[in-house]
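Final report, closing paragraph on structural work. Over the funding period we assembled a curated collection of sequence-structure pairs, and we close with a single example.
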Amino acid sequence: MSKTNAAPLVSVVVTCYNYGKYVAEAIESVFAQSYENIELIVINDGSSDNSDSEINRMRKKRPFKYISRGHRGVVATRNEAIAKASGQYVMQLDADDTIPSGYVKKMLRVATEKNADIVYADYKMFGDETGRSAFPNYDFDRLKEGNFINISCLIRRAAIRKQRFDEHLSNRTHEDWDFFLGLCAAGCTAIKCQDTVLNYRIHGNARNNTLGSATSQRQYVEMYCYVIEKYAKRYPEQFDLVKLIGTLFADVFGAAYEAQKQENGELRKQNNALNTANNQLRQQNNALGAMNNKLQQENSALVGSISWRITAPLRKASKGYKILKKKAKR
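Its predicted structure, as stored:
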């Protein structure tokens, strides 16, 4: 990754916490960028796995700035990424994700052509799930309702000014949304790049901000209200608290309703399966009962038959012989 004076320097900061099995892929994807004037920084947030050895292995391939220290959490690491970047533009990449080879070049082209402070893109899921996001074109009113700007967007560093990730949201939720909402409320312009996507890995250790459980719903509501109230105090003319809180509860109750409907559907499927199994057992029981009745009828017919009566003395004699044989053995 050579540096020239003609093209702006882009700082790409890979943040890693216990993603040793993925971090090399993330770094390789930065090495493979078609845009050359990149400053690569990797921050190891106190990982306890093999992240350090993997990062150092990649440094032997191509040198880059490496920061390794004790664990401080995602918010502190994101803020450190901003502080350590020296490029005109900065982009963060989580160590479990990757970017296609033309990602930086395409994002930067949109930023310069449209004079945008923030350029974001959709993401393509891979790993445990596949699919693609469908983020909307930028609209500040929609951003106030929820985040659609992913952390691997391209940001003009000068536009960040004093905005930082909120330490109060560390190890909770909404820290990305809070950061971008603050930037845009302060006047930053954002635009969506339609020509590329972030490769977003889905796996068991990924953070999950869905509203599936009562605990996650409560935390979602608490953090949403915290963020909205914070910016409503700072920019009262831009935030209608009553409207936004109403939208929030509509979303939460809607998600809860959908989750309950899905759970009811699963219970209905299980009940239908049990009913089917019960019917099969009932049919088998009826068949066994019919077979037993038939055998009893055949037995009664045999006992009452002429041949059965004729052979009765022989069966009696055989029985007596067996008794005498047992006595003789004694």
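The first helix runs from residue 23 to 31. The radius of gyration is 35 Å. We thank the funder for supporting this effort.
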